[in-house]
Amino acid sequence: MSRELLRRYLEYFRDLGIRELYRRPPRNDAPQGRDARRFEEPSEAPAAALLVHAPTEGRTETLDEIRADLGDCTRCRLHQGRTQIVFGDGNPKAKLVFVGEGPGADEDAQGIPFVGRAGQLLTQMIENTARREGISLLRSDVYICNVVKCRPPNNRTPEADEIETCSPFLFRQLAAIRPKAICALGATAARALLGTREGVTKLRGRWYRWRDIPVMVTYHPSYLLRPYNQNAKREAWEDLKKVLHYVYD
Ligand code: URA
């Protein structure tokens, strides 16, 4: 890692109130059994390669406090086109958090993540897969949020500087919730959480870590809505089953 990149990481952790960093020692507390091999990390995952202590001073902040700090955010250009900030939705004590890319038109209008077509698919995937697997779970039991909290114009992919500006709020949400696992939906979420540019096809189906929390990468529901992606749909159901069993068994 270059000195400049390292400086930016340290500055960024300092902004989060994090004072101590240390390299993670080899771990052996990954889930055992069928999936014991799964805590591999992508080769270029600088942020995930560091285990970060919780802030040393004070208690963990709440989602409401983080939302209040976000305020009527104008920290990046995305604020110019938004109707409203889309912070997150669901159980603040969720064992499972889904992270998407950024709000689309429906989310921007309603202020709730994943309520459009992709959102309806995600909700069905969560609830139907859980039911079929004998797990009692509703969308309202998990927490759903995005890497960026304002809708990018024409639903374009968020730019690197927009992700860099907004992702500390995502990280604070995750630190506040402390879920048992995170499911990264698509490449932008994978990149923000794992610091990798590797594509979803390569990353999916295996476990990584954000800090000490297991992360499963899978396809974004918008991708699954495209008609020719039958294989990807099947793979996404497989990924989701793995996550649900790990979290709720
Ligand atoms: N796509 C996302 O990534 N997030 C949403 O909230 C909706 C669609």
Word description of this protein:
By secondary structure, the chain is α/β, with parallel strands linked by helices. The protein has a single domain, classed as Uracil-DNA glycosylase-like domain (Uracil-DNA Glycosylase, subunit E, 3-Layer(aba) Sandwich). The chain has nine helices and eight strands. The strands form two sheets. It has a six-stranded mixed sheet, sandwiched between helices. The chain has a two-stranded antiparallel ribbon with strand order 1-2. Helix 4 packs across helix 9. It is globular. About 13% of the residues have low confidence. Bound molecules: uracil. The site of uracil (URA) has 13 residues, from helix 4.
